Amino acid sequence: QVQLVESGGGLVQAGGSLRLSCAASGRTFSNVFMAWFRQAPGKEREFVARISSSASNTDYATSVKGRFIISRDNAKNTVHLQMNSLKPEDTAVYYCAVGVPRSYNYWGQGTQVTVSS
């Protein structure tokens, strides 16, 4: 059974940093994209970042470019999101996903990130 488990969320002051992790199990994900999405209260889920299977290509939402860094460790089936210079508008539940762009097959349960002003 495929399972994605996020961790690393929490409460941080504006300007601070957090590092999210997502551990995948149930199969190998070394040949698919891994990505992060987020959903703020009252808003639709939005794309944050994605990384290709070999980690050679990354893409970011404009709102996080230059502040967030996505990485992966295929040996451990994990993906990370280093979030720096956090802003209150980054407050959301963050989800990891695996698959192909625009068609992610598996999703985690999410981890809450709250940035106070």
Q: How many β-strand stretches?
A: 11
> Mean pLDDT, as a whole number?
96
Rg, Å, rounded? 13 Å
Sheet of most strands: 7 strands, mixed
Walk me through the structure.
It is a single chain. With 117 residues, this protein is mainly beta. It has no helices and 11 strands. The N and C termini lie far apart (40 Å). The strands form 2 sheets. Strands 2, 4, 5, 6, 9, 10 and 11 form a 7-stranded mixed β-sheet that branches. It has a 4-stranded antiparallel β-sheet with strand order 1-3-8-7, with no helix packed on it.
List keywords for this structure.
single chain; mainly beta; four-stranded antiparallel sheet; 11 strands
Write a brief caption for the model:
This protein is mainly beta.
Write the layout of secondary structure elements.
Elements: E1 3-7, E2 10-13, E3 18-25, E4 33-39, E5 46-51, E6 58-60, E7 68-73, E8 78-83, E9 92-100, E10 103-107, E11 111-116
Parallel strand pairs: 2-11
Antiparallel strand pairs: 1-3, 3-8, 4-5, 4-9, 5-6, 7-8, 9-10, 9-11
